[in-house]
Amino acid sequence: MFDKQGRACYNGGMIDEQRLKILTESAKYDVSCSSSGSARRNEGGIGNGYSSGCCHSFTPDGRCISLLKILLSNDCIFNCKYCMSRQDADVPRVSATPDEVCELVIDFYKRNYIEGLFLSSAVHVSPNHTMEQLYLTVKKLRTEYNFHGYIHVKGIPHADEEIVRKTALFADRMSFNLELPTEKSLRLLAPQKSRESLLLPMADLRREKLIFQAEKRKGHFLPAGQTTQLIVGASPERDGTILRLSESLYRKNDLKRVYYSSYVPLVHNSLLPNVGGGALREHRLYQADWLLRFYGFNAEELLPADGDLSLEYDPKCAWALAHMELFPVEVNRAPLEALLRVPGIGARGAQRILDARRYTKLTFEDLKKMRIVLKRAKHFITAGGKFYGANAQRVAGLLAAQEQSEQATQLSLFDENALSALTGEL
Amino acid sequence: MIYFYDGSEEAFLTALLLSYHDPAPILTAGNRQLVLGQETVFVRADADMAKKARERLLTFDKDCMADLGLLLRSGDADKDEIALRYFRLLAEKKRPVRKMLSEDAAFAADTCIRRVTFEVHRFHGFVRFMQCASGTLYAPISPDNDICDLLLPHFRARLPQFPFVIHDVKRGKAAVYDGEHSFFAPLKEAEIVLSADESAWQALWKGYYENVNIPSRERLRQMRGYMPVRYWKFMPEKH
């Protein structure tokens, strides 16, 4: 596919701006744009994986562009109430050909605009037909266009598992989006989807990957695993239900990420709320999700099944305030797991403390020098036996006041998510 | 005493050795204001002294030369001082000091190195190539730190069939890959003839950037935090 000067020569044509616009706008509410988890090597041709993920640009909504995120077609036979491409909607219907998509990927990739492709589609003609088209496109991109960069493919519910498995041989990651946390909401808002049609293929892919690895077969099978997405605020489920679902997806289905997408009302329907889910709720869910994956928390500790996360405090802080009897911990002795549970100390801060205390007994002065943020942490730690926090009864009030004054600005710079967004994990 | 040097690794190691018994040395590669009455030394790289210093330091910490390379690439005005204090600490402790973060010298070096490697990571994403009529890909950059050569291996690994030039216009140097070999060369100005369809691809990209955004969720502060305005200059989507 390349001539001697490294110029690509194709048989397709350049996609026109109008169709690209429609296929982009219909794809953009899918939150996932991460390119991490695959170390695929270049074997001639173009591209390779970047295990930690890589962001190429950021849009004014603060999201990272890592992958070219488009639909193959927005012409849908499904009628999910919340979706702008649903069958009933009066919108122009367009499709792109596999060659147009491949060419776009190659030309964007070599200019370093993107890290790879996120290919999705409306359910066009039938689930099998759609999955087949997605399969053919990524197969073409890998084998004819010799592309070794990142590919994320959306799984289509109700498609035959055979086509889904074949697709997994060419993709780095696949995702079946649960969209709604319970069967009941799904039936109400996305009548053609069922929980089974989403969870079964996830389980099948997981099984197939384990077999693939056990047999040490050649090639790749979803090296970056699977993810899913939940829309928050379109249906009445509480945070407790949502986080328990995420927890079981991580622990039982081995998912890499669950994305939460605060509902944006694009469609007027009596079954749907007219206002969007708040950005703060979405933020709190991500914070809690982080605690489940990297901080050794489980959902049970954070909130009851019928409860919501506190909007006032971040979830770790809320947990710590409810467990003041476990604090303060001594930074010179506390194990990593205990340090990670201190509000205001993140994974990197905890690691810095572990490193530094091997050489010296740490004081508050040292912590400050090491740029450990003590504003919240000081109420929960001692350093060399010294305590500078407030009286346990007053801590909750002090932290609430702090949080409130910062919220307006802080919302846009999530401390824990900041770096991950940069590395394309978000 | 003030030690002037040329910013090279060899001269740095020479200066480190020369200033070792000076209780308060100041090291600089820049045009530091001379203070009347302060003694100055102009350090010339001495291969033997550098070798001696390097070998000794490597016995304390086998990875320390990588740190030095990164520190000297930093765009921080105090980088020479930071590097000097870091290596004096290493010589004093006689074992790796990288993680002694409660030591000012170690923490300053850690921060400085992190800035350089972080910028390299950012530029893996932020570099923008344009295709020339000859097929060569050309990317002008203007990074805070001197990282042009550190970027080359990444792009060479993923674009092995494309000759490319990454041009640091701020420092007047370039990393070049001709399709087989890579090298680094001074380059003041480059004359570029773009391929016929380059502007059409840029237009498609700008359109994509505009359409993938969700305007109702504007978070400009967050965008600028992740992608600082000073990096926008060579990004077609920001013009």
User: Number of DSSP helices of chain B?
Assistant: 8
Query: What sort of overall outline of chain A do the alpha carbons produce when their principal axes are compared?
Result: globular
In helices, the fraction of residues of chain B equals 40-55%
Number of strands of chain A: 10
Which of globular, elongated, flat, extended, rod-shaped describes the shape of chain B?
A: elongated
Find the biggest chain interface: A-B, 68 and 58 residues
Rg estimate of chain B, integer Å = 21 Å
Strand content of chain A: 5-15%
State the low-pLDDT regions of chain A, or none: 1-10, 408-426
* Domain module tally of chain A: 2
Average pLDDT taken over every residue of chain A: 89
**Level-1 CATH class name of the largest domain in chain A:** Alpha Beta
**Fraction of residues in β-strands of chain B:** 5-15%
Can you tell me the CATH superfamily of the largest domain in chain A? Aldolase class I
End-to-end CA span of chain B: 49 Å
Give the biggest beta sheet of chain A: 6 strands, parallel
State Rg of chain A.
23 Å
Supply the number of structural domains of chain B: 2
Secondary-structure arrangement, i.e. CATH architecture of the largest domain in chain A: Alpha-Beta Barrel
Number of beta-strand segments of chain B: 8
- Termini Cα gap of chain A: 33 Å
How would you characterize this protein structure?
The complex is a heterodimer of chains A (426) and B (239). Chain A has 426 residues and is α/β, with parallel strands linked by helices. In chain A, 39% of the residues lie in helices and 9% in strands. Chain A folds into two domains: 17-309, Alpha-Beta Barrel (TIM Barrel), CATH 3.20.20; 315-408, no CATH class. Chain A has helices at 17-25, 98-110, 127-143, 161-168, 183-189, 195-214, 239-251, 279-294, 299-302, 315-321, 336-340, 347-356, 364-369, 374-377, 392-410, 415-422, and strands spanning 57-58, 64-65, 67-71, 116-120, 150-154, 173-175, 226-232, 257-262, 329-330, 381-382. In chain A, helix 3 packs parallel to helix 4. The longest helix of chain A is centred in the middle third of the chain and has 20 residues, at 195-214. The model of chain A is unreliable at 1-10 and 408-426 (pLDDT under 50). In chain B, the strands form two sheets. In chain B, strands 4-5-6-7-8 form a five-stranded mixed sheet, with helices on one face. Chain B has a three-stranded parallel sheet with strand order 2-1-3. Chain B is elongated. Chain B has two domains: 2-119, no CATH class; 127-238, no CATH class. Chain B contains eight helices and eight strands, in the order βαββααααββαβββαα. In chain B, strand 5 (137-141), helix 6 and strand 6 form a beta-alpha-beta unit. Chain B is 44% helix and 13% strand.
